[in-house]
Amino acid sequence: MGIEKKLDPDNWVDKYSDELYRYTLTRVTYSNFAEDIVQETFLSALRAKDSFKGEASEKNWLYTICKNKIIDHFRTQSKNLVKPSAAEEEIYFDKLGHWWEASTPNKWGLNYSQPIETKEFYNSLELCKNKLNAIQRSIFVMKYMEEIETENICKILDIKPSNYWVIIHRCKLHLRSCLEKNWINI
Amino acid sequence: MQVTPAQLFGKKLDKYLDMLTKLYEISCRRATFLASKKEAGKTSYFENLKLDLHYKICEGCKLFDNQTSNFSKNAKHTHNHIDVAMKAEKKQKIKDMIKKLKN
Question: Is residue A109 less than 8 Å (CB to CB) from chain B?
């Protein structure tokens, strides 16, 4: 009876589908993946409803399931990921490792320790994130959006730590440069 | 009259300074690579020192570090700032599946 009171599957879609969808889409990029993950979240939750102890709210419980599905998605996807290619850094650095003049970071005129609240930033970040290749994006999402430890990310994607650092470096170089062009408009 | 260290030690000091610089010098490519490792607490004391010294002389890498930390930290809030909704047909399909599974 207690469980019936707290879980209300008939209203899950109306109450949570849009926010879970937004959460998932910003992490897995493609709408078909996001739709499937949200659907599987609800169906798994329903199958596991007896394990709901009411310690977390219904909403947080659904989020936990959804976050696990997102990680599963990355684990499955990792089998098709291409290994990092050689020397993408050469777009930004010369042979001695100095910034090319055109790639040197410019001042953004921001207080970098302050949170960013503008829609323009988040739209640009989505655009730039979607330009990354799949493995770069997976790592960025897991590290900075799901806040998973480096060691776990390497396990999930089955990559070596040395590769992880190379990829996250490229990821930041690409994102920073893309944001400077598209968001800051330099 | 003030005596500069160079006048005092002559060419030897220049040589030592040169060696010291070479020991601590890293390229911008290396500095931006180390920035992510440092953020995760995976750099050595010596690497941190090299990075700090590099930032003192290189504004570009300092900017890179500040800017990338800033947008990376904010990325997890993206879903609160974009307008997308799930398609109505998909929602209906899931509702039907839930109903079916419940019975």
Answer: no
Helices (H) and strands (E) in chain B, counts: 6, 0
Could you give the ipTM of this predicted complex?
Answer: 0.91
* Residue A93 DSSP SS3: strand
For B14, the domain range is 5-102
CA A90/CA A97 separation, integer angstroms: 9
CA–CA min distance A75, chain B (Å):
20
Q: Which of B58, B53, B65 is nearest to B23 (CA)?
A: B53
Do residues A165 and A89 share a domain?
yes
- The rounded distance, in Å, linking the Cα atoms of A107 and A180 is 9
A46 touches chain B (CB under 8 A): yes
Supply the pLDDT for residue A184. 93
pLDDT of res. A3 = 46
A74 shares its domain with A116: no
Gap between the Cα atoms of A1 and B8, Å rounded? 89
pLDDT category of residue B13 using cuts at 50, 70 and 90 = confident
Residue A114: is its pLDDT beyond 70?
yes
* Region A35-64 average pLDDT: 92
Number of other residues whose CB lies within 10 A of the CB of residue A15: 14
